[in-house]
Amino acid sequence: MGLDLMIFDDSLGEANRKYNATGTSFAFEEWSAFFFEEMNIPTLPYADGDDLGEIHRKEKEMFVAALGHFPMLSRMDDHYSDSEYNSHEVSQLLNECSSVLTDLTNPLAISFTNGLIQGCRKAIESGFGVSLGAD
User: Stretch 86-115: mean pLDDT, rounded?
Assistant: First the structure.
């Protein structure tokens, strides 16, 4: 399972949206290294019988709260769910990625961030949005 980075023309509306593959995909390990190791997102322990829906809801809240200064990045709160950024949001996503890149030390997190930066630049050049699609 991975996150495929695609760009799309959001001027066509959702019904007519066509996604263009960028050839960039992120493994869970890259996503996890970035958010849990580098951005220090907390996780909750759980055991058999716990309400996983409730744990997922609480983890989402913690994820968003921990990334309060990074609202675009906070929307990537689940590796197994899609995240989309319309063309007017891509510059902010690029700025957020660029602002943390120099502080990263984990090669997987650096790869994840560089891939996002490259995808954002492609989208901006075309006036497109960015989609991370879980496969």
Answer: 98
Indicate whether 1 pLDDT > 80.
no
d(CA 5, CA 15): 20
Distances (CA, A) of 98 to 68, 73, 95, 135: 16, 11, 5, 26
Identity of residue 133: G
CA angle 95, 99, 103 (to 5 degrees): 155
Token pair in block for residue 64: 């968003």
Q: What is the pLDDT of residue 43?
A: 86
pLDDT of residue 51: 87
